[in-house]
Design brief:
alpha+beta
């Protein structure tokens, strides 16, 4: 910040508001801080009794806050991100499509460790809808040194994209519902309508439901049938506990795929299972998916339907925020539990 003669301030950024008072008529802001002084402003400033003002000189290696904000999002944002207009030095990032928000957290933290930088986001790895506010960016002062932005852009380039949205892929899902009580008709299946609604939210389609009972061979045949049909996911409901009659986990293991996890640090949803068979995710869904509005399903299945390959580590990380708060108003897809 420097003090300059009004006549020498053209092209510089005003560092403070300037008030105008017309007795009996008006008192208010004539020039706002952040205003870039133009030639036409000089006479007005002189009329207001201003001979000197405090400014940032953009010709001396400073970048105006509006230009800085735009450069920040252009450097950090990846696919399916849109930007708002810059207002008062701040720019907003929004989702350009439905999908899952991905954020490189280490990069985000490194960027915000740069002096005079503010780059804030919502929590990542959650479903977002088109138009959803994802974050905002600005610099702290009215004008920032060029080297600050250069550092921001360098970090972003090393990690690009820092923030992006992975769109949902059109997916076909087969449902295998185990349990002799369902197969025999003694109990009506309640999973299908829940899974159908969730599939619609994710842009997916349920192609059918099979009822193999509790026979391991029949369960295997049902799952394999969907895989041979070319589905993008198989969802197996029922039989996920440790009871002796619950065969789902052992059958999924016996299919010979890559078992990622049986059990998660998520409540509700601890008995969730994920395996990849011939590269296709086969998930074992615990009973809570049928009756709880929010479960591990809503944290994991959307990611799988973007094509993301999950590891055991991804499930371990769910422990922080994996306890559902049972909020009185649960507004999926904004809920990511405590994450």
């Amino acid at each position: 910040m420097e003090k300059v003669r009004v006549e020498d301030a053209v092209g510089m950024v005003l560092c403070h508001d300037i008030t105008e008072i017309v007795p009996g008529e008006f008192k208010g802001r004539a020039f706002a801080k952040g205003h870039i002084i133009e030639e036409k402003d000089i006479e007005k400033l002189l009329d207001l009794g201003k001979r000197h003002i405090y400014v940032w000189d953009l010709s001396k290696g400073y970048v105006h806050e509006n230009d800085a904000a735009l450069r920040m999002v252009q450097a950090a944002a990846g696919e399916n991100i849109t930007f708002s207009e810059v207002k008062e030095g701040k720019i907003e990032l929004r989702a350009a499509c439905d999908g899952v928000l991905k954020i490189d957290l280490e990069a985000l933290y490194e960027l915000n460790d740069v002096e005079e930088i503010c780059f804030a986001t919502i929590h990542g790895n959650k479903m977002v809808t088109k138009g959803k506010l994802l974050g905002g960016a600005r610099v702290i002062p009215l004008a920032v040194r060029e080297e600050i932005l250069t550092a921001f852009e360098k970090i972003s380039a090393e990690h690009r994209p820092v923030i992006s949205v992975r769109p949902f892929r059109p997916a076909k899902i087969g449902v295998v519902t185990t349990g002799s009580e369902i197969q025999s008709g003694r109990i009506q299946d309640k999973f299908w309508p829940v899974l159908e609604d969730k599939a619609a939210e994710l842009g997916a389609e349920l192609v059918g439901q099979k009822f193999p009972g509790d026979d391991p061979e029949e369960i295997t045949k049902a799952i394999r049938g969907y895989l041979d049909q070319g589905v993008d996911m198989v969802q197996v409901t029922g039989g996920m506990s440790v009871d002796p009659d619950d065969m789902t986990p052992s059958v999924i293991r016996a299919l010979g795929g890559e078992v990622i996890t049986y059990g998660t640090p998520v409540l509700p949803g601890a008995m969730f299972m994920l395996s990849y068979v011939d590269g296709v995710p086969v998930v074992g869904l615990p009973g809570c998916v049928m009756y709880s509005k929010r479960t591990v399903f809503d944290l994991i299945v959307p990611r799988l339907l973007t094509g993301e390959k999950l590891s055991k580590r991804d499930f371990v990380l769910l422990a922080h925020g994996g306890q559902c708060q049972n909020c009185p108003v649960c507004t999926y897809p904004d809920c990511g539990f405590g994450q």
